[in-house]
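Hi X.,

You mentioned you wanted examples for the new student's onboarding notes, showing what a folding record looks like when two proteins sit in one file. Here is a clean example. The first protein comes first, with its sequence line followed by its C-alpha cells.
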Amino acid sequence: MLIGQGIDAHRFAAGRALIIGGVEIEYELGLAAHSDGDVVIHALCDALLGAAGLGDIGRHFPDDDPAYAGIDSRILLCRVMASLRERALAVRNADITIMAQRPRMGPHIPAMVACLAEDMGCPAERVNVKATTTEQMGFVGRGEGIAAAAVVLLDE
C-alpha cells in the first residue's frame, strides 16, 4: 500500500469558467491558472504522483510549457493514471476536501465523484469528495479563491 497527499489553491479570476473536480460550476468567476485551474484534480494528481514516488504535477506538466495552457485537468489526471498503470498501481481510495467559502459545492459533488472515478478507473465508492468553508478566515474565507486537499491509497 502506498499513501500520497496533495494540496492546491488558486485565486479567483474574471473571464474564466469555474471547473472543480472535472465539473463546470456556474459562477461569475473562475480560477486563475495556466491550465483550467481545477484545484481538486491538481491536488489529486499531486497525491497520486506522491504515492507513486513520481514527484509532483509541476514536474510532469510545467506551467511554463505552452502545451498545457488552458488544458482540461481531466487530461492531466488521465495521463497520471496511465503512468500509475505502467507501474501496476491502482487506486484503492481517494479522499478529497474542497475549501471554498463560495460557491456552494454540495450540489456538484455527485458529478465530481463520477468524473474522478471514471478518470481514475475505479468504482465511485472509492472516491470521497467533501466541501467545507473556512468560517470566513484566510483567503478562502474572504472569497479570494478555492483550495483543495487530497489523500490517496494505492495498491501495488
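Then the second protein repeats the pattern, sequence line and then C-alpha cells:
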Amino acid sequence: MFTGIIEELGTIKKISKQGNTMVLSIAAKKVTEDLKLGDSIAVNGVCLTATDFSKEYFLVDVMPETFKSTSLSSLKEGTLVNLERAMSSNGRFGGHFVTGHVDGIGQIIKKTPKENAIYVDITLPKEYSHLTILKGSVAIDGTSLTIFGLTDRQLTVSIIPHTANETVLGLKKAGDIVNLEFDMIAKYLHSFISKDKSESNGSTGISKEFLKENGYL
C-alpha cells in the first residue's frame, strides 16, 4: 500500500529486455536507505519488488502483464521515474490509498500554466469514467492528485510548483503517456453495486440514492 506522495526521482540506469519482460536497474538514494530484499517500491505508480539493491541502486523485474498494461515498456536508460516506498504504519498519511496496481494509461493532452499552478489535461479511458468524480482522487504516475475538471473522456488536475519540481509530471509534455490508478474506494463501491444487482436480478439495496442519503456521494 502506498500514499501517492513521491519520495524521490530515480534514474533508469540499465534496462535488460527479453520479450515482454524487463529487469530495471534504478539509481536512487532515499528509498534504498532502509530497503530489504523483497520490499515493494512504486515506480511511476507501479508496485514492483526489489530483487537486489545497494545504497545507490535497486533492481526490479517487470512481468509481461505489467509490460503490456503500463507505461514502463516505454522507459529508456536515463529516464527519471517517481519512487515511493510502501507506506509505514507509523507515518503520516498524506495522500490517498494507492495500491500500485495500475488500471490503465492516459495521454497528456496539454499543460497550461495558471499563476502558480499548472493545469494538466489527460485522456480518460472510457471504461474507467465511472470511477471518477470531481474533487475525487486519482494517482497519476503514482502521484496522488485531485480531479478538478472532468468529462467522459478527459480529466484535469492542477499541480503546484513543488509537485512539478519533485515528480515526473512536471517534466512530461503533451503526447506523453502516464499511468492511471483510480480511487480504490470507488472501485469497491462499483463492484459491490454491480454484484448486488446481478445477484438480485436488478433489484439492489445499494443505489446512488442510498449512497447520497447516507453521505457517501
